[in-house]
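hey
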């Protein structure tokens, strides 16, 4: 039995449409686990005494951890389940505010552009993506380009 996709196909997205993920609170274990998996033990993230001497005054989450959590939040929306073919790129990536332990983040996606692919069974979706904290401040922003399946003719 073939897997039936539950996500949206290219045609089902509308330019200007916005989606919001569930929230997730960042904790010290997230940062410790990320440091262990990646080998990024920068003291800004792993040494509280050092971090007290920085402009942040405390340890902060890795920017790439924030980006990774955003990816997971997007996956949990189910929009791309079985219909995404590839993440083609992340453009204009900026980390605009620190994510501190105890901050709660969510991701907002807005369909910026749709374009047909050179192959008739797929299309390209461009999404403006914002990761925001519990105060509504943008902590990370980027544009992502996703290759999606089209509905069968």
């Amino acid at each position: 039995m073939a897997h039936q996709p539950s996500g949206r196909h290219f045609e089902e997205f509308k330019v200007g449409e916005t989606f919001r993920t569930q929230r997730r609170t960042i904790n010290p274990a997230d940062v410790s686990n990320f440091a262990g998996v990646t080998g990024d033990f920068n003291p800004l993230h792993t040494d509280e005494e050092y971090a007290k001497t920085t402009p942040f005054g405390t340890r902060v989450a890795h920017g790439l951890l924030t980006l990774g959590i955003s990816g997971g939040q997007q996956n949990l929306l189910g929009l791309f389940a079985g219909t995404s073919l590839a993440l083609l790129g992340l453009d204009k990536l900026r980390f605009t505010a620190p994510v501190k332990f105890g901050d709660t983040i969510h991701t907002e996606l807005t369909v910026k552009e749709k374009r047909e692919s050179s192959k008739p069974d797929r299309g390209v979706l461009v999404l403006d993506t914002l990761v925001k904290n519990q105060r509504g401040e943008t902590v990370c922003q980027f544009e992502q380009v996703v290759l999606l399946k089209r509905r069968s003719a």
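DSSP finds four helices and six strands in the chain. The mean pLDDT is 95.
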